[in-house]
Amino acid sequence: QVQLVESGGGLVQAGGSLRVSCAASGRTFSDYTMGWFRQAPGKEREFVAAINWSGGSTYYADSVKGRFTISRDNAKNTVYLQMNSLKPEDTAVYYCAADGAVDESGAMGYRPDEYRYWGQGTQVTVSS
């Protein structure tokens, strides 16, 4: 069992930066593929980024590529999402997810149903 707690959300102006964090409990954090998803009002939850167990492989949605960076610190059981050049359309609740699927080629999951554990979410609001 893994419990995830996100933090670091808030209000930021367009063009600004924000880093959200996700602290995980449990001894097997370093085994898990971790992901970030987001959900805006009236929209489905969508994939943002994923990182493999070692941090050596990352994967991003096209909408955030080049602006967002996912990273992890296995010693601290924490995964981060650094968000730069934020846009109003980035406004959403950001969710951390753990134990993501990985296929035979090493490709990480990008669908919500491919992740087993979820945090409660943290609100990110980008004003124009």
Account of the 3D structure:
This protein is mainly beta and 128 residues long. The N and C termini lie far apart (40 Å). The radius of gyration is 14 Å and the shape is globular. Strand 4 (34-39) and strand 5 (46-51) form a beta hairpin. It has strands at residues 4-7, 10-13, 18-24, 34-39, 46-51, 58-60, 68-73, 78-83, 92-98, 117-118, 122-127. The chain contains no helices and eleven strands. Strands 2, 4, 5, 6, 9, 10 and 11 form a seven-stranded mixed sheet that branches. Strands 1-3-8-7 form a four-stranded antiparallel sheet, with no helix packed on it.
What topology emerges from the helices and strands here?
Blueprint: E1 4-7, E2 10-13, E3 18-24, E4 34-39, E5 46-51, E6 58-60, E7 68-73, E8 78-83, E9 92-98, E10 117-118, E11 122-127
- Shape summary: globular
Whole-number radius of gyration? 14 Å
Q: Mind summarizing the main beta sheet?
A: 7 strands, mixed
Number of helices: 0
Distance, first to last CA: 40 Å
Portion of residues within helices: under 10%
List low-pLDDT spans. Answer: none
Query: What structural category characterises the helix and strand content?
Result: mainly beta
The count of β-strands is 11
What is the averaged pLDDT score?
96
Strand content: 35-45%
Q: List the secondary-structure elements in sequence, H or E.
A: EEEEEEEEEEE
What is the gist of this entry?
The chain is built from no helices and 11 strands.
Features:
128 residues; globular
